[in-house]
Amino acid sequence: MSESSAEVVASAASAAAASAGNWRKAGVVGAAIGVVAAGAAAGVAIERLTVGRGMRQKARLALDSAGPYGSLRGTPGKAYADDGSELYYEVDDAEPEAPLAPRRRRLFGRKAPVPVTVVFSHGYCLNQDSWHFQRAALRGVVRTVHWDQRSHGRSGRGVAQTEDGTPVTIDQLGRDLKAVIDAAVPDGPIVLVGHSMGGMTVMALADQFPELIRDRVVAVALVGTSSGRLGEVNFGLPLAGVNAVRRVLPGVLKALGQQAALVERGRRATADLFAGVIKRYSFATRDVDPAVERFAERMIESTPIDVVAEFYPAFTEHDKTAALAHFTEMPVLVLAGVKDLVTPSEHSEAIADLLPDAELVLVPDAGHLVMLEHPEVVIDRLADLLMRAGAVPAGATVGGYGSTSSTAQPG
Q1: Assign residue 225 a region: left if phi > 0, alpha if psi is -120 to 50, beta otherwise?
Q2: CATH code for position 292
Q3: CA nearest to 182, candidates 83, 74, 81, 112
Q4: Lower CB density within 10 Å: C or N end of the chain?
Q5: pLDDT of 285-326, one tens digit each?
Q6: What span, in angstroms and rounded, lies between the C-alpha atoms of 268 and 251?
Q7: Looking at the domain assignment, is residue 296 inside a domain?
C-alpha cells in the first residue's frame, strides 16, 4: 500500500472509531434508488477520478470494521403476514422501574396501565437499523418494536411475490404491520413512527384497520413521507430528464430484476459510483460522518435488485390521503428535511395541512434520511411527542443521543 493510501485508510478508520459519540449528519435514499442514477452519474464519476479504486475499497473495509452503527439488537421475534411471509422484529423493553405517566393512568383507569409501545417502520431499501440513533436514545425509557418490512433486512422474501408474482402494494405493507403488532404488541397503547415507505405503511394500516387506530394508537410520527402524488416528484432532475426516466424505469427495473445475479455482480463492480448516487440523494450536507455514510451504503447495498424492482411500482399508485383523517384526534408529528429530493418537504406540508393540530417540523439542510442526518432534532421532537401522548413522564430524560456502543445489551 502506498503511503498516501495508508493515510486515507488510517484516517477513515480513525473517523469511524471516533463516530460513536459523534452526531454528524447522514441520510439514505428512499423511494427512488433506481430513478436517480443517470442524472447523478456524471458528476459522481468526475469526483471519483481523483481517488484510486483500491484506496476507496480499503477505506470502506476500515469503516465497516470500525463503524458501530446498526449494532443495537433487541429480543427477536417473528410474525407472519396473511400470505405466510415471515416478518422479523425486535423488542427493546423499558426499565421496570420507569415511572408511569399520569395521562396513561387517565386513559386506562385506576389499575396499573400496560406500558406504551413505540413501533418503528423503516423505508424502502432500508431496514430497522435505520432508526439507530432513536433506538439508542429511547432504550430503557419506553418499550420499542423495530421490524423489517417484507423482503428487507432479516425478514423473509414476500411469499406472494416469489411464488405467485403478486405485485407489492402499500396496502399489503399495512397488513404486514398489523401482523407485527398482533405478535409483538397484543395489547396496550401504541405510538406509530414511520419513515418514507414506513410512513405510507402506517397510513395503510389506518386505512384498513381504523378500529385499531381509534382504540389503541395514542400518537403518530410521520417522517420524510408522502400521502400520495409521488409520480410527480422530479428528484432534482430536469423536467425532460425525469419524464424520460419515468417512461422507461418500470420496464428497466423489471428486466434487471429478472437478471438479479448478473446485476448484483455489476452493482458490486460499480460500488464507487453507486455510493456517490446514494450520497447525492441522501445527504444535504457535506460534513457527513464517513462511518454513517458507509452504514447508509451497506443498508441499500443489502437490498437485492429484484426487491427494488418489486416495490417500486407501488409508490406511484400510493394514495392514502383520506386515511389521514384517522389521526385527527391524537398528537401527530410531521417532520421532513427541506432538501429532501425523494419525498420533498412539500408532501409533509400537505399532510400537515390535513392535520391542523399536528406539529410540522421542517429541518433545514436535511435530506431524505433526516433521522440519521440530524438525529438530535428527530429525537427531541419525538421525545416531545411521547410526552404529549403520555408515553413517558414529562420529567423523563430521553438521553444518550448517539449512544452507539456495540456492547449495548437488548432492552
Answers
A1: beta
A2: 3.40.50.1820
A3: 81
A4: N
A5: 878 788 888 888 889 888 888 898 899 889 999 999 999 999
A6: 22
A7: yes
